[in-house]
Amino acid sequence: MPVPEFLKQPLTVYEIAEQYWDLKFIPTPYVFSLLALVSKDKLERDKCNELSSPQGQEDWLNYCRRPRRTILEVLHDFHQSASQLTIEVIFELFSSIKPRSFSIASSSSHTAQRIELLVAVVKYYSKLKKERLGLCSNWMKSLHCGERVYGWIKQGTFVFADAPTPLILIGPGTGLAPFRSLLLERDAQGKASKDSLYLFFGCRNMTQDFHCRGDLERLVREEKLTMVCAFSRDQEDKIYVQHKIAEARELLWPLIHNKNAHIYISGNAKNMPNNVKDAFIEDVFCKTGGLSLEDGKKLLKDMEKNNRLQTETW
What number of H helices and E strands is found in the chain? Predict the structure, then answer.
């Protein structure tokens, strides 16, 4: 099996398990087919065959995917089968830890010798009422100054329009990262202006998770940034970035219609991007711009086609 160059060789199985294998992955149906091949316990073998079959997909979803049951928990549940695993099957069973991608949150012109990341430490409870910790984020949290992290830099997906084209940046949570990089870069170049940089930032509480607050408030004070914040939990009714976009529609429509503004959306891919796009269509394009719903949707598609609307979500 291919092993990254930075892992010393030769390696013991223990070292591979410790440094290379993902021990928290959610087993696929294929994993259960492997367990069925080696199992000598009829009940466990029958169950593994069921979970790996096309007819057993709903059972697999309920047992593995929805409760986010890990491979180690599955091996514990199917301990008779797990005891029969050979070294060959173990190597077939486990896969390598997948690289994690993070947007750089710093500017090379601002901090030339340092790369800064904005990382959310993942911690939640599954439907099994068991604590789940994000593998990479919690490992990074455990590091101390001076410890080595292996990684590489690749080109981001955003292509920002040159100043003075207005940029409308929507980055709730850690979606702020690429925009902080941009803002600090424009600041260092002397190209930051409140008339061309518009940031919509969102988080739960102003006092708890207002990321990079010092940098952003400084740019606002120096009239280098126009910022609108949505703090979803600081009042009874939850307020998100799409609500702030709707409120700012009188500001945003002239920027888009008259000044060729570009829109950039960064953050969680679950609901936010579509909610933001809907706010632009319904509130900015239709209510303020006077477009029909059909024409509003067409304008959004045209902006996406011409790279005037770009998204970077995960």
Answer: 14, 7
Residue among 44, 48, 2 nearest 28 (CA)? 48
Which segments within the chain are labelled E, that is strand? 123-125, 131-133, 167-170, 197-203, 226-231, 262-267, 309-313
Q: What are phi and psi of 229, to 5 degrees?
A: -115, 145
Round to whole Å and give the CA distance between 79 and 49. Answer: 16
Give per-residue pLDDT as tens, 132-173.
Answer: 899 999 999 999 999 988 889 999 999 999 999 999 999 999
Angle subtended by helix axes 42-52 and 29-38, to nearest 10? 150
Q: Which two tokens stand for residue 49?
A: 């065959």
Specify the pLDDT at position 19: 86
CATH of 167-313, one of 3.40.50.80, 3.10.120.10, 3.40.50.300, 3.40.640.10: 3.40.50.80
Residue range(s) of every CATH 1.20.990.10 domain in the chain: 13-93
CA dihedral for 46, 48, 54, 60, sign (positive or negative): positive
CB neighbourhood size of 217 (10 A): 13
Is 7's pLDDT higher than 70? no
Q: What is the pTM of this model?
A: 0.88
Q: What tens digit of pLDDT does each residue of 52-89 get?
A: 999 999 999 999 999 999 999 999 999 999 999 999 99
Task: Tell me the three-class secondary structure of 164-220, residue by residue.
Answer: CCCEEEECCHHHHHHHHHHHHHHHHCCCCCCCCEEEEEEECCCCCCCCCHHHHHHHH
Q: Which amino acid is at 303?
A: M
